[in-house]
Amino acid sequence: MLAGHAGRDERRVAFVVGLGLIGTSLALALRKAGWTVYGTDVDAGRAARAVELGAIEGPAALEPAEAGAAVAFVATPVRAIAGVARDLLERDATGTLVVSDVGGVKGEVVRRVDHPRFVGGHPMAGSEQEGPDGADGDLFAGATWVLTPTARTDARAFGLVREAVAAIGAEPVALDPARHDRLVALVSHVPHLAAANLMDLAADAAVEHGVLLRLAAGGFRDMTRIAAGDPAIWPDIFAENAPAVLAALDGLAGRLAEARRIVAEGDWPALVALLERAKVARRNLPPRAPVPDALVECRVPVLDRPGVLAEVTTVLGGLGVNIFDLEIAHSAEGERGVLVMAIDAGQADEARRALVERGYRPALRALR
Amino acid sequence: MLAGHAGRDERRVAFVVGLGLIGTSLALALRKAGWTVYGTDVDAGRAARAVELGAIEGPAALEPAEAGAAVAFVATPVRAIAGVARDLLERDATGTLVVSDVGGVKGEVVRRVDHPRFVGGHPMAGSEQEGPDGADGDLFAGATWVLTPTARTDARAFGLVREAVAAIGAEPVALDPARHDRLVALVSHVPHLAAANLMDLAADAAVEHGVLLRLAAGGFRDMTRIAAGDPAIWPDIFAENAPAVLAALDGLAGRLAEARRIVAEGDWPALVALLERAKVARRNLPPRAPVPDALVECRVPVLDRPGVLAEVTTVLGGLGVNIFDLEIAHSAEGERGVLVMAIDAGQADEARRALVERGYRPALRALR
Lengths: 368, 368
Hints:
Chain A is an alpha/beta fold and 368 residues long.
């Protein structure tokens, strides 16, 4: 919807390293969106299976450069991501390969790779299935996909990853890596521990009370569904995000101690207040990113350096402002440029205020 | 499939007191099963709505006796159940009305009503919807429905409630009331508190971090779905089941403290062991009561007194043995009788062993 997108088609070649559930789902989704996708896995059997499933082109073991890939996504276990990403960037003779990842923790990976053409990412979608056979090309449709640009991130690299993510129907949102990690501890990592422990506690009691699991109704099933997922991915996640997980666990423990007090003392007004707050919050949980009634173009004159991109996008991302399109228009003088974004008209005033507060001078213009 | 069921049709009239989500769903389900259903509610608007929805016959304010009802189900808030049930039994001039309920806690209600024709019940199904408009005639299909006969329970009363529950596609299972209460604390009451607190913790953080709720993926949505339900039903449940809820909360707090140690110390083998146990347990969660390949008739000669019925059925219920049909055949002498049950052939040996241990002499015979 903005100008300047001509000629992008020839860049639509991607490479996926790691063909588990997420990597294979990403490959399937990109192919559905018209991209050409190559890929590899340390397990040759999984790579062959991904070829059979039509997720990637065969043969499976090409390099990104041989494949002509513009972007590589690292979908390995979390502890391996930084090494694989650095290796891909170092071996790339073209000097243009963009690398992203899909790991569930971002601070450590982003710090260790620390490269202008690396853009950390994390799709907020998953499944209790495992491996390429559990993959689903629609897994990311409507899901939020966090990107974590830093002061070093190259605008072209960010734009390309953003474009790939938007192409498969996900909603890119830029966040500071450390902030991402604190927030996913609350909505993913600690809920996972709670689900596993609720299931394990009930299973223990079921050893003595054979009937117990027959009493498990829909609510319990819903709460423990994620506990059926692959355990193998979690040690890396908890290792890399331990401080945020411990803080969120302490938050939950404090809440449960208060719930214990409420029940022990029969403080029913406090119980109803808690349940009422939770009910309102749950009913207001956005089902997916809002579809805007109208878009506006937000033009932000910026110094032409990478840090500006990260600051502007993460300020907007932190507010929940969705950026539907983005490009950098360079000025003739070379030192200055204009960051041009399409955003939801309903959020435009909030976005402008936040940017003005940081010293930017955004200009808004209606798009049709 | 057993003999002696002739002439039951004229008894298929039920009365439902309390036409909220569960009461109206039960009325709809019974009507679908061919029963005639009358009902009432302290809120005349809800009763009228239940008539409009086709859940009950109009006019809505009949008494069970006027309606010719054989069984009345009390589906009021938990604190009102005992009073309503006693009142129905005291006002019944026929001396035959059977009363059951659908409350989430059983010990206190069963103790307070304490009547041969009262059979406590609890369908293990629910919804985050509210009121008659949220009702669903298929809500109980395949759900476990706990019945809590006691030493005083009349066999005819138990048989009639069992028949009504089975008619709407639920799977009746008999349990001791106190045991029921301990088990639902683990699979319903404490999971509800966990869901509400996870949602409230995230909502608190979302005040500062506008984007947080956009990061909530499917797992978090599943875990917090029940937090969207009506808060009003919970004070009664926690008040009546406080000891079991506190014990289960302490169990969960202990597990989360151990999870904290695991993350703080990086004890990944312990983490994987926990997640692996939870995964196996979750994947083995029975989707619904098993459909038996074959049934056997289990005949248990018993002294013809009510306590025997409660003991035999709750021994089998506690093992997870489903009783597909049940009747009492009285002997000519009057003091002795035979409890005749249809059970899953695959569970017959286990059932026989448990009954022999208690001093019974069960005889098994294949049914076709």
